[in-house]
Each structure stands twice: as structure tokens, then as C-alpha cells.
Amino acid sequence: MALVQLSCGRWEMSELRHLIMFGAYLMIEDDYMKKIVLKKLQTIRNVRISPSVIRRGFLESIPNIKSLKIYYAVKGSWVSEVVDLSHLHKLQTLSWRSSYDQYMHVPKYPSTLRKLNIFGCVITPAGTTALCALPNLEVLKIRYCTFKSNETEEEEANEEWEIAEGDEFSSLQFLLLYNSRLVRWRADETNFPRLRHLFIRYCRKLEEIPAGIGEIPTLQLIHLEECRYSAVASAKQIQEEQQSEYDNYDLQLRISP
Length: 257
What we know:
There is one protein chain. By secondary structure, this protein is α/β, with parallel strands linked by helices. It has a domain at 116-256. The protein contains 4 helices and 18 strands. The protein has helices spanning 8-11, 51-55, 125-132, 229-246; strands at 3-6, 18-20, 25-28, 43-49, 67-72, 78-79, 93-97, 103-105, 115-119, 121-123, 139-143, 146-147, 159-162, 174-178, 182-186, 197-201, 221-225, 252-256. The strands form 4 sheets. It has a 10-stranded parallel sheet. A 4-stranded parallel sheet has the order 6-8-10-12. The protein has a two-stranded parallel ribbon with strand order 1-3. β17, α4 and β18 form a beta-alpha-beta unit. The longest helix has 18 residues, at 229-246. It is elongated, with a radius of gyration of 20 Å.
């Protein structure tokens, strides 16, 4: 994989609108980012950055960014520093990724986010509440993340995602849980009032889908792939109850082996 260093001169391109790196590493030296503001830059994709780049003013230099896909390169297995994106008031699509063995707490997000893909983050109760506070979030993809029932960094044998009463993904329509060690998921229809599509893939430890998920009036599809038998059985029970008790034949269930 190539190592690409963005020169100070290129970072001063005031007309730059889209920065896309294909499988490359990006390094920006010096403190030019604190001096230069790229007001027209709207898209950054596939860029690898480090905490030092963040501290040099990378995020402050892109105030009007709309789509951001970042690989956050850190050393060590845990990162306690929380990245603040809340000032990016035009950001609508965000993909935030760290490596498989490096976990960080979820960033602080702007309320404008509509699509969010988080990869390799730690999701705590506070992190869940922060996600629920995003009023425009329609698509949420959670990949290779760790769920913790408290704010400590200790490993937990049985991961649990409990969405507290009152926490509500008010606009969420699409939810993907991908390749996590999640064992228990506690939620109901009040937490996802507008959910349409639920995808659960390669979550081989998840015991079951919360029964209350079936009560979501907008739910159209539950899709499970490579999940344990008990989770599949709970999904089938949800569909059967919707059909037998409520004549709801609109809820579709797909099981991939």
C-alpha cells in the first residue's frame, strides 16, 4: 500500500472540492491546516489520518465537508481521546473506521448526520445516547464494534447492548449489525419508531432479536445471515406473531445460511 504525503502547497488549493485516495495512506505535515480553511471541500474518502493530524487542525480546515470517510490510525489497543466532529454542520455522510485490534470511543457527531458507518469503535451507554440524539440519522451501520455496559476499558465476557428507556432513534430507517460479539440486545419498538430494514450479519453470539422489534409499525424486513439458531428462531417467532395476532403479512423475513 502506498504512502502518500499531501504537500502544504496542495492543501492550499482553495478550489479543491473532492479528495479521494484509493488504498493510500495520507500524511499532512506542519501546522498549515491551522492556517488554511478549504471552504469548498465537500468530499474526503479513503484517507488515513492519525490523532496528531486531528490535533493539528485537520477538522477545522474543512468546515463545509458533506461526506467524510476516514481511517483513524492509532497505536495501542485503546484510545481514550474522543474526536469532536460536532462543528461540521454540513456533514451528512460519515464513515469512521479504526483497525480490528484498535478500539476508540465513538466521536462527537454533528446533528446534520444522515448516514453513519462506524467500524471498530466501542459503544457504551453514553455512546448509544449520543447516537440517539442525532435527529436526522436515517442509516446506521455498526461493524466490528464492541458493546460495553459501562464506561470502563475492561473486557466483558458477554457483550450487551441495552438501549435505555427514553433513548430513541427517531429517524432511523436502516440498521446493520455486522460481525460483533454481541450476546444480548435489549430494546423495543419505542427505541426504533421508524425502522424499516434490520440487517444482522455474522453476529454468531447474539442470542435473540428483542421481541419488541416486531411491534415497530414501519418494519418491513428482518434479514439474518450467519447467525445462531436461537436468533433465527426469535426472528421467525416475531414474524409468526405479527401474522397470527395482527394480520401483518408485510413484514418479510430473510435467512441466509
